[in-house]
Amino acid sequence: MGPRWKGKGAEAKALADPMSKIVSQLRLSFIESDLQGLLSGCIVLLEANAEQTDLLNRACFGRPIVNADKDKQWFQLSMEEAFYLCFALKCVKIICNDKWLKNDEEFWSCMTPKRANFHNLCIAYSHLRMKNWVVRSGSQFGVDFVAYRHHPALVHSEYAVLVLSGKDENTNGRLRVWSDFQCTLRLCGSVAKTLLVLYINKNGNGVVFPSCLENYSVEERMITRWNPEQSRENGTK
Amino acid sequence: MGPRWKGKGAEAKALADPMSKIVSQLRLSFIESDLQGLLSGCIVLLEANAEQTDLLNRACFGRPIVNADKDKQWFQLSMEEAFYLCFALKCVKIICNDKWLKNDEEFWSCMTPKRANFHNLCIAYSHLRMKNWVVRSGSQFGVDFVAYRHHPALVHSEYAVLVLSGKDENTNGRLRVWSDFQCTLRLCGSVAKTLLVLYINKNGNGVVFPSCLENYSVEERMITRWNPEQSRENGTK
Predict the structure, then answer these.
(1) Measured between alpha carbons, how far is B46 from B155 in angstroms, rounded to an integer?
(2) Is the model's pLDDT at B59 over the cut of 80?
(3) Which of the residues A175, A199, B130, B140 could staple to A166 if both were Cys, CB 3.0 to 4.6 A apart?
(4) Integer Cα distance of B208 and B175 in angstroms
């Protein structure tokens, strides 16, 4: 299943303005203004100027909060988005109770009690973003994320993403029984998405690399129903 | 969500020919001819005469096997169907390797290694059938069963049924994470079915009642999305 562009000219528009370029502009702008995000409950609040607001919207990070101020715009980031901007792009500092969370260990210990599977969701989100996919919540489709080839205004999401622990650690997660597979695949089919399962494995025993992301490996599996017709040597159309 | 009848006159037809009557006719006919089912792998094979074939089809049990013989028709029953006919209706004897399975313990020990959750599926199937629901496999919709108010030729299935172990024993099953709920409810909604979850509890410690079904209690829960509009005191239409 290829990308489903929204209307004429959407593909050309996307090609002319690659996501990687938008994100690196955003990164430079954030680093220049030494941007700080405030951790509040399960979200991170970010104060952006006009240029940054434009870049955040184009890169599809966070959700703008309605306010009357024309020069400053507040954004609400999910934990995965905050993690990515902070520890992969290293362009946002996260502040929790007036304390700067300097490394991922401090971030984990601050966030893990608030949400199960949080660790894996952050790693998976970063994995897809680093490949220039636009990633949004998949709760509408009963998955963790959906992944877009470019901005959701230009293209429909292509992948429904489930994030699972690798190496037989998947004790509480999804896809442990056939009925769950059948349910998920039928739903993905009906909304024209491919099911992508990301298994998150921790490398080594507590080895800490310069970037916390290098402590993990991500295994990608696309899951589709097997169609006997398509597997014949003389394939049908 | 009420029943969705298939075309004009379907409801009247169903009312004129209640499922309970069809099943009790089938039961009498089976007892009279001392019917035996042969356990083969994960199915039970049944040889039916013309009258029994008609009753099996009308009550929607099993799947007829195509053959050339006009007087005799073979039927393939699922394990749940065989369990119900054998231990709830007590009108079929099940034979496994030339040995008659006299009680449910013998049946369990013969079948359990072949399929996980088999116990619970049989109890749930019987529970619904005893209330005169027609029960078929729900694998098409990623659930264990679908339940029809009458024969599937007359009405669409109303419930998508998931069978879970009760009392915190649900270690490997469905609906343990939010994304699974979201997925299942979205799919059920899109095919106009209500999600019915049956929790199977075992009563007492190994107490054996005259019928094995009395050893279990079934807890029914219907799951729907909460719609704030519908919960207001001055309800909308």
Answers:
(1) 27
(2) yes
(3) A199
(4) 31
Query: Is the pLDDT confidence value at A120 over 50?
Result: yes
The pLDDT tens digits for A20-46 are 999 999 999 999 999 999 998 889 999
Range scoring the smallest mean pLDDT among A227-236, B24-33, B80-89: A227-236
Helix (H, G, I), strand (E, B) or coil at A3: coil
> Where does residue A226 rank: exposed (0-12), middle (13-18), buried (19+ CB within 10 A)?
exposed
Q: Which of B25, B114, B110, B36 is nearest to B77 (CA)?
A: B36
- Report whether pLDDT(A71) > 60: yes
Q: How confident is the model at residue A237, as a pLDDT?
A: 47
Give the closest of A117, A142, A176 to B183, CB-based.
A142
Number of domains composing chain A = 1
Q: How confident is the model at residue A234 (pLDDT cuts 50, 70, 90)?
A: low
Q: Looking at chain B from residue 58 to 117, which residues have their Cβ under 8 Å from any Cβ of chain A?
A: 117
Domain of residue B155 covers 10-231
Whether residue A112 is contained in a domain is answered as yes
Tell me which chain A residue has its CA closest to the CA of residue B143. A179
pLDDT digits (tens, 9 = 90+) for A181-212: 999 999 999 999 999 999 998 887 665 555 67
Spatial distance between the Cα atoms of A121 and B180, rounded to a whole number of angstroms: 16
Say if CB A174 and CB B180 are below 8 A apart.
Answer: yes
Beta-carbon separation of A186 and B140 below 8 A: yes
Say yes or no for a CB contact (<8 Å) between B179 and A140. Answer: no
A143–B179 CB contact, under 8 Å: yes
The answer to whether residue A5 sits within a structural domain is no
Q: Is residue A106 part of a domain?
A: yes
Query: Is A236 a domain residue?
Result: no
**Could you give the C-alpha distances from A203 to A117, A119, A170, A209, B126, in angstroms and in order?**
17, 14, 16, 10, 48
